[in-house]
Design brief:
The radius of gyration is 19 Å and the shape is globular. The chain has helices spanning 25-34, 58-64, 76-90, 108-122, 136-145, 187-192, 216-240, 261-289; strands at residues 2-4, 15-19, 45-49, 67-69, 98-101, 149-150, 153-154, 171-179, 200-208, 254-255. The termini are far apart. Helix 3 runs parallel beside helix 5. It is built from 8 helices and 10 strands. The chain is of the alpha/beta class. Helix 2 (58-64) links the parallel strand 3 and strand 4. The relative contact order is 0.18.
Length: 290
């Protein structure tokens, strides 16, 4: 089910997507709900943890031009430099539009305790359903791909959308993913379907890039506020089974995702085929070296 702002009108415009991260199935969820949004899926760029480079879809992602980022303080500066270089080389040359990242820098179950300790230490918002976002990749993306700066913010994102083409990022799309009973799904569940059918909910909120600060401290506060809002959205969802209505409205309206069955069959077939191929490759190397 989809909630919140309608992202279809800006599907052909440059945007950065920030989403909460609970499990590997979040990627599948986003692919499913965005496949009917024009050319978004074909023209999007993903930022994902480097471990996914060694999975069955890692080679596909490399060819597609996605970026694998290595986590940890020891790698931070080098990874941000590599990210900027990657964006400079591939974002415009491959006609990418939406760039997707998970600012939390890891799964909720792995980062929650560390995030809450950090919050207590520095008197920051205490979050249960999301974690405090990390700033590095978001800041690099905004500074590398954003339009000309105006008064410490990024220009663009106004009503005259036709004039925004080729002027850098125009929007920030804030996506909040909610799973029934707060039980996220991993990729294995998506492929093998060993859990009972369930409904996944996706909430969209759109911000014009001109409203997003670019300097480190204001941007940090802005991004923290987005995740405080995510916390409130998810708390309301887990309590009521629905996202809260927008300000000024009495009831939130949801709509079912429009899924192309042919596209689903092709993707599922590819997942099985690539998984089988990857298994055989790993098995071959195991016998060769062990």
């Amino acid at each position: 089910m989809e909630w919140g702002d309608d992202v279809r009108p800006i599907s052909e415009e440059a945007a950065v997507v920030i989403a909460n991260h609970q499990a590997t199935g979040d990627v599948c969820t986003l692919m499913m709900c965005l496949q009917d949004k024009g050319t978004v899926v074909r023209k999007m760029m993903w930022l994902m943890d480097h471990v996914f480079k060694y999975t069955n879809f890692g080679l596909v992602s490399l060819i597609h031009g996605d970026f694998f980022i290595r986590q940890g303080k020891a790698h931070r500066d080098k990874q941000l430099f590599l990210l900027k270089d990657h964006l400079d080389k591939y974002y415009h040359s491959r006609d990418r539009k939406w760039i997707v990242l998970f600012p939390e820098g890891g799964f909720l179950r792995k980062r929650r305790e560390t995030s809450q300790s950090f919050s207590k230490k520095y008197n920051l918002p205490f979050l249960k359903h999301v974690t405090l976002p990390r700033m590095g990749a978001t800041e690099v993306i905004l500074k590398s791909l954003g339009p000309q700066q105006e008064n410490g913010s990024l220009a663009g994102g106004d009503a005259t959308r036709s004039a925004s083409k080729s002027k850098g990022l125009q929007w920030v799309i804030d996506i909040t993913i909610a799973y029934t009973k707060a039980k996220p799904m991993d990729i294995q569940t998506w492929i093998l379907a060993y859990r009972s059918p369930t409904v996944t909910h996706v909430h969209y909120r759109i911000y014009p890039i001109k409203d997003v600060p670019i300097e480190t401290e204001p941007l940090t506060n802005w991004l923290y506020q987005r995740f405080v809002e995510k916390e409130e959205l998810l708390a309301h969802f887990y309590e009521t089974g629905a996202f809260p209505p927008p300000k000024g409205q009495k009831e939130a309206v949801s709509k079912e995702m429009t899924l192309d069955p042919v596209w689903l069959v092709l993707i599922q077939s590819f997942a099985f085929a690539s998984g089988y191929m990857w298994y055989n490759i790993l098995q071959y190397f195991y016998y060769v070296f062990f």
